[in-house]
Write a structure and sequence with these properties.
Blueprint (H helix, E strand, L loop, with lengths): L3 H10 L3 H5 L3 E7 L6 H11 L4 E8 L11 H18 L9 H5 L2 E3 L16 H10 L7 E5 L4 H13 L2 H10 E5 L6 H8 L4 E4 L27 H9 L3 H5 L13 H4 L21 E4 L23 E4 L2 E4 L15 E4 L2 H4 L2 H14 L20 E5 L6 E2 L11 E7 L21 E2 L10 E11 L6 E11 L1
Parallel strand pairs: 1-2, 1-4, 2-3, 4-5, 5-6, 11-16
Antiparallel strand pairs: 7-8, 9-10, 12-14, 13-15, 15-16
Length: 475
């Protein structure tokens, strides 16, 4: 088996069809739905983006919290509700699949926990379906978004390893992009150890207190927790938004803890799925071998945690300037920076929650009565090369809004996404101007700096789209 760096080179050097043509990202979901309400919540959200993400499997699985049964019937119930609003969704954007088409994608894994369901005689319609999708004559990667246990994927990989030639198997491994919500059975660590070339995003371990995905629903100061409150969900998602919204359950343990596993796949101008280290709605992750940190709060029946054997895409922290309205008293002279792994998700919270709310409006409203996202347009390429000390211009004056709404502009540097460690000075560092005039820093070797343009309309709810400009500064 080739070393992991060989596969990493193939991942990052190969320009995928999805990147080069704008084709949809392929997605298979593994869900321990009925373990708790948040899987149903995440599925409702995912279906509102079913025209932008190519869903290729909805597979009911077990997990450490749901060890002896699977619940595809709940997926069917939510898909039926989606079918009732799908005609109205099509009034707003094309490409929403029919409920009947989505029902053919619902499959079952074995009602067995973890590695007990991996090995001879453990093939299921779910594991067979994963192999079938991987073997399609389609060069695009397949993202496997794992909301519970991962043993159905583990069985697919076991079968591939045993029944395909090494060359055939390697080709299929290279197609995989896996994001698991922590470890919810013992087959996740087994995959990472046995298949070191598989692209894997995870906050490893069976306890959740260190997980990046908690940024989806955490409520510490500065995170704008009102956007994940029961009151907000009732007003913008559950009530008055048709049968799909009515099936969005109340929060029990935490809102949509599984959603970050696909939130970074939505084509919004910020997300770049092949680059987890660039950051997006689903968080930011770096490729490294995580240090073993034993959880204090894992289930009593969870397997013992063991050290990772190879690099994975895992937790990385962002520093976010908190709005002054969230500052503790007495007010300090400058806003404080909140630095955490969870911040890589919650920093975008108002934007991704408003986007979801708008799509729930699409379930019942006419095009004219609803809001639609603006369309940012740059006046220059998305990749620039600038010399040290040179002033340059970032401009997006040709941006438009399909509803004719007024728009606000904000240029921001995303320091953690680039290689340059410092903060860039602006000549006009203010909001609501479509042009920024940064000055390139002095460098002794080429460095990259990521600038993010946020264009937000003044519709209801206010919607944001992005452009990412990567500036390479050379000596």
């Amino acid at each position: 088996m080739k070393p992991p760096l060989f596969f990493l080179f193939l991942f990052l050097s190969n320009v995928t069809l999805a990147q080069s043509t704008g084709a949809k990202t392929r997605l298979i979901v593994l869900t321990d739905i009925e373990n708790e309400p948040d899987d149903s919540q995440s599925l409702v959200r995912l279906l509102t983006y079913a025209n932008q993400i190519q869903i290729e499997g909805l597979i009911a699985t077990t997990s450490i919290h749901l060890q002896k049964r699977v619940a595809p019937e709940t997926i069917h119930r939510i898909i039926r509700a989606y079918g009732k609003v799908q005609p109205n969704l099509l009034k707003h954007e094309p490409g929403y699949p029919t409920a009947q088409a989505l029902k053919t994608l619902i499959k079952k894994g074995l009602p067995v926990y973890g590695m007990g369901g991996v090995g001879p005689g453990n093939d299921s319609e779910g594991s067979t379906w994963i192999i079938r999708q991987l073997e399609k004559p389609d060069n695009r990667p397949i993202w496997v978004s794992v909301w519970g246990g991962v043993n159905t994927l583990a069985q697919a990989l076991w079968t591939i390893q045993k029944t395909r030639t090494p060359e055939q198997a390697e080709r299929l491994y290279r197609k995989l992009r896996v994001y698991t919500i922590s470890d919810q059975d013992d087959s996740g660590p087994w995959i990472r150890k046995t298949f070191p070339g598989v692209f894997y995003v995870v906050s490893p371990g069976y306890g959740y207190e260190y997980a990046t995905w908690l940024g989806m629903n955490t409520g510490e100061p500065g995170t704008q927790p009102e956007y994940v409150s029961n009151a907000w969900l009732a007003e913008h998602i559950q009530q008055g938004h048709g049968p799909l919204g009515a099936l969005y359950p109340d929060v029990a343990f935490g809102m949509e803890g599984d959603t970050p596993s696909f939130l970074g796949l939505i084509p919004n101008g910020l997300n770049v799925p092949e680059h987890p280290d660039w950051g997006g709605w689903g968080g930011r992750y770096v490729l490294q071998t995580p240090t073993l940190v034993v959880s204090r709060n894992k289930p009593a029946n969870a397997p013992a945690e063991t050290a990772e054997t190879r690099p994975v895409w895992t937790n990385s922290a962002d520093s976010v300037l908190m709005p002054r309205s969230f500052m503790p008293q007495p007010m300090t002279k400058e806003p404080r920076a909140g630095k955490s792994t969870r911040a890589t998700i919650w920093r975008w919270r108002p934007e991704f929650q408003n986007d979801f709310a708008a799509r729930m409006d699409w379930c019942t409203k006419s095009y004219k009565a609803a809001n639609h996202p603006p369309v940012p347009r740059l006046s220059h390429p998305e990749n620039l090369t600038i010399k040290s000390g040179e002033q340059f211009y970032l401009r997006a004056s040709e941006s438009t809004d399909p509803d004719g709404d007024s728009m606000s502009f904000r240029w921001m540097q995303y320091p953690e996404a680039g290689t340059y460690p410092g903060i860039i000075s602006y000549e006009n560092f203010v909001s609501n101007i479509y042009e920024a005039r940064p000055i390139a820093p002095t460098v002794t070797s080429p460095q990259t700096i990521h600038f993010i343009l946020k264009v937000t309309d003044k519709g209801t709810p206010a919607l944001t789209r992005y452009k990412r400009v990567i500036v390479t500064v050379v000596p």
